[in-house]
Amino acid sequence: MTGPSTQKTVYDVFVERGFIEQVTDEGKLRDLLKGRTTCYIGFDPTASSLHVGSLVPIMSLAHMQRHGHQPIALVGGGTGLVGDPSGKTEMRQILSLEEIAQNAEAQKKQFSRFLDFSEGKALLLNNADWLTKLNYIDFLRDIGVHFSVNRMLSSESVKIRLETGLSFIEFNYQLLQAYDFWHLFRHRGCTVQMGGSDQWGNIVAGIDLIRRLEGKEAYGMTFPLIMTADGRKMGKTEKGAVWLDPERTSPYDYYQFWINTDDRDVSRFLALFTFLPMEEIREYGRLEGAELREAKEVLAFETTRILHGKEEAEKARNAARALFSGDEGEGSIPTTSMEKNVFDQGIPAFKLFEITGLCSSGSEARRLIDQGGAYLNKGRLDKFDLVIRIEDFNQKGELLLRSGKKKFHRIRLLDKK
To answer: Can you point out the beta strands (E) in 114-272?
Structure first.
């Protein structure tokens, strides 16, 4: 077959790259996405930065935009005041309006790395702009009347929380999210809501509200929870979340997170987290053994380039290559500067691993050294209380610590004059 009918739509891209878990009406949604539409995803504003766990929804908005659709990134400034119980075993901390506004502002910069907000090509909205102005009695009469408590109680996310306790304020969350969808449908022509798999019940509630209030159809799509091949939730590491804010997770550490991807996940992550053509990704998927490092390097470079820019990605790649080849190198290796006189008396090795953040505590550092996983310059450390002095530094006034095979940290002497 030839002609327009074979042209790939964004829905085809989502299927091919592994984005879709559930959709409300596949046939109609496929047809809708052949034209131009507006879609939205809500984002939690309870932190000043998004993290790697938010990348699938962010990338989905970017794909929508690349196929001519208008994406809306909706910061939940209003719903954040209530707290979404979906997928949570306990009630979230409730933040003030000021804290949420500050977080929302900080997240804007991160969205702009993935989406073009010029000339209305994408919108960044905050649902506090309409939710905080609602009159409670009017809301109950106009919106609450359309919701069945029995149906809400049957929602999986609500059932889970009923076992541990669900506050009334959280029980209202589904009404507010449904109202968001209706508001965006009414005022922005938004016909598609997307989100994580735990949002299915909330999305369907919004579609139902639009049908009742407007007599029209809207659609929903959810993404699977991304798990690594070894069964961990994507983006969770020993050190905690991997943040999109360079102040929280440096470009070098971000690059390292991706290059340390499990061999079994490389192709899948290239499809989800980069914009590389699938033909190229399939070629990388055929690599095995030592050659697979090339694919990991591509994954790390592309993900870092998208978020932090080409220059930072190249610095991180050069630093990683230098370390991998056994050269201390320059680049963007995490570095701590310490005053020279600190080493006059010397510092126990385990303490340096704690100071630099290679280990979260002194006891963890002791265990690492005792188990043979710690290195000073190019030699394995065999005593956790080995005293590190000036003579351990090279001619440049530097020494290199290593935890395991891949985590490095440089200490540079600061000669106080």
So the answer is: 123-126, 190-196, 219-223, 236-237, 240-241
Beta strands per DSSP E along 197-242:
219-223, 236-237, 240-241
Q: At residue 57, what are phi and psi to the nearest 5 degrees?
A: -60, -40
Shared domain for 258 and 381, answered yes or no, is no
Question: Is residue 203 classed as helix, strand or coil in its secondary structure?
Answer: helix
Which tens digit of pLDDT belongs to each residue from 118-177?
999 999 999 989 998 988 888 887 887 777 676 766 666 666 666 676 666 667 778 889
6 versus 10: the higher-pLDDT residue is: 10
The whole-number pLDDT of residue 237 equals 63
The pair of three-digit structure tokens given for residue 377, joined into one six-digit string: 């310059």
The domain in which residue 255 lies consists of 250-324
CA distances from residue 200 to 157, 243, 363 in whole angstroms, order as listed: 9, 25, 43
Query: Rounded to the nearest 5°, which phi and psi values hold at 256?
Result: -60, -35
The DSSP letter of residue 67 is T
Q: Residue 180 is inside which H or E element, if any?
A: helix 173-188
pLDDT at 174: 83
- The number of helix segments (H) and strand segments (E) in the chain equals 18, 15
Helix axes 10-17, 55-66, angle to 10 degrees: 150
* Pairing of β 190-196 and β 374-376: unpaired
Measured between alpha carbons, how far is 369 from 349 in angstroms, rounded to an integer? Answer: 9
Task: Give helix 292-308 / helix 278-285 axis angle, nearest 10°.
Answer: 140
Which DSSP letter does residue 82 get? T
Q: Tell me how crowded residue 111 is: count the other CB atoms within 10 A of its CB.
A: 21
The reply to whether 198 falls in a domain is yes
What gap in Å lies between CA 352 and CA 359, rounded to an integer?
A: 9
Q: What is the CATH number of the domain that holds 296?
A: 1.10.240.10
- Residue 7 tokens read as 């042209």
